[in-house]
Design goal:
The structure is a single chain. By secondary structure, this protein is an alpha+beta fold. It has a single domain, classed as 2-Layer Sandwich (Beta Polymerase, domain 2), CATH 3.30.460. The chain has 5 helices and 5 strands. The chain has a 5-stranded mixed beta sheet with strand order 1-2-5-4-3. The longest helix is centred in the middle third of the chain and has 17 residues, at 76-92. The radius of gyration is 16 Å and the shape is globular.
Amino acid sequence: MFRPNKGMTALSHLTVVEAARPLSPDRARSATHAGSPLDTILVALDDAKAEEIVTLDLGGKSFLADQMVVASGRSDRHVGSVAERVMQALKDAGFPPAKAEGLRSCEWVLIDAGDVIVHVFKPDARSFYNIERLWGDDRPKEQKPR
């Protein structure tokens, strides 16, 4: 069981996820001036040492978003840290707040950043769900609802 040291507070909702440290000044400047949420997300993923980063263009395939980014973290703690870094970078760059699901277990974290959806997986979960195959070039185009 975690026992806080003097000056620390135990926060039950942060049991798995580390608090996000701010981007370095150079990285923050490049993320802020990147211009698009996708650019900001990619800089944050790189800065957080996410692995196997793949960007999928969803144009014409889905009305959910324009792009999807899939990345991996080495452990549940790393997945949570990567997700927190992405959300903080978007906030720091002035984009609307991103919503996230899965931060409690950090097996798979889904971040909805409006026009960009980000999936951060542990390696086993990523290979099981195989999101790249589902949304890759082979996927048929969606029809607009009538």
